[in-house]
């Protein structure tokens, strides 16, 4: 299983988080939906700003 995070517009902390913490999540999805191992690529992040001006980044994986 490989998670590709090649998009340079994704902040470094988010790329590291995706590679570290979301690998088990995409592995589980892979086992549910596929019989073969696959590779996942981090898609364009969605950025939201809340009322305190903190930016939240939603990670989208492309299958």
List keywords for this structure.
hydrolase activity; two-stranded antiparallel sheet; EC 3.4.22.48; hydrolase; single chain; 3-stranded mixed sheet; 63 residues; alpha+beta
Structural summary, described in words:
With 63 residues, the protein is α+β, with helices and mostly antiparallel strands. The chain has one domain. It has two helices and five strands. The strands form two sheets. It has a three-stranded mixed β-sheet, covered by helices on one side. The longest helix is centred in the middle third of the chain and has 11 residues, at 23-33.
N to C succession of SSEs? EHHEEEE
Strand order of the largest sheet: 1-2-5
Counting DSSP E segments of at least 2 residues, the number of strands comes to: 5
Structural class, by secondary structure, is alpha+beta
User: Low-confidence stretches at least 5 residues in length (pLDDT < 50)?
Assistant: none
What is the global morphology? Answer: elongated
Q: What is the residue-averaged pLDDT?
A: 63
Quaternary state reads single chain
Give the number of domains. Answer: 1
Q: How many angstroms separate the termini?
A: 12 Å
In terms of DSSP E residues, the strand content is 25-35%
Largest sheet: 3 strands, mixed
Structure annotation, total helices = 2
Radius of gyration: 13 Å
Q: Helix coverage percent of residues?
A: 25-40%
């Amino acid at each position: 299983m490989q998670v590709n995070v090649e998009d340079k517009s994704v902040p470094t902390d988010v790329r590291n988080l995706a590679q570290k913490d979301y690998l088990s999540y995409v592995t589980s999805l892979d086992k549910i939906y596929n019989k073969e191992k696959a590779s996942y690529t981090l898609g364009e992040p969605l950025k939201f700003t809340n009322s305190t001006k903190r930016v939240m980044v939603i990670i989208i994986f492309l299958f």
